[in-house]
Design a protein that fits this description.
Blueprint (H helix, E strand, L loop, with lengths): L2 H18 L5 H13 L1 H21 L5 H15 L3 H5 L5 H27 L5 H4 L10 H17 L4 H21 L4
Helix pairs in contact: 1-3, 2-3, 8-9
Length: 185
């Protein structure tokens, strides 16, 4: 088998369940049908998977009484339930428990030191150092510019087209210059 054929077969392995569930495009599904007609490895792979899926469908169609189903779910939840005590005090030898406790203590101490340092040092407030023009959260400038454009549009309706187009053009150029001034590029 050539390297290209091997790569195609590996790609089929990744898409085999999509193929079986009809979740591939028509073209892609047709491609795999043609490939399986020529490739014994991929055709045997899909045959094996179909046999396993058929057996699973037969075995999983058993009707469970509600009580048995609820018991199964409850047992699964009990097994997966997170227990804090087990996390802090894991099972194992005394040496492993001591090593874990030591690591936990070191992490706690480092976190405490980091909090103390951050509270006691004078760090500049980055929000206060940003210019007010960039932090114009109320958008006063934007609102005034929009109102100016609205007024200009209203004036255009009064038949002063040439003058208004020039005013709009100048205003747009001014806005572009201001926008460039505050851009982060």
């Amino acid at each position: 088998m050539s390297n290209d054929e091997n790569m195609i077969c590996k790609e089929f392995e990744r898409e085999v369940y999509l193929y079986l569930d009809n979740n591939l495009s028509t073209d892609r599904k047709e491609y795999w049908k043609q490939h399986m007609a020529d490739c014994k490895i991929c055709s045997s792979l899909i045959s094996e998977i179909e046999i396993v899926l058929d057996q699973a469908r037969e075995e999983l169609t058993e009707n469970l009484p509600d009580a048995k189903f609820e018991t199964m779910i409850e047992n699964a939840v009990q097994k997966k339930r997170f227990k804090i005590a087990e996390w802090f005090f894991p099972h194992g030898t005394v040496k492993e428990k001591f090593a874990f406790s030591l690591k936990l203590a070191v992490v706690g101490i480092l976190a405490t030191i980091a909090v103390i340092i951050s509270l006691t040092t004078n760090q500049p407030n980055t929000v206060k150092t940003i210019s007010n023009e960039l932090l114009d959260w109320e958008g006063k400038k934007v609102i005034t510019q929009i109102n100016e454009i609205k007024n200009t549009i209203n004036l255009i309706h009064e038949d002063e087209w040439d003058k208004q187009i020039m005013i709009l053009n100048n205003k747009m150029q001014s806005l572009e210059k201001n926008a460039d001034k505050y851009s982060f590029n």
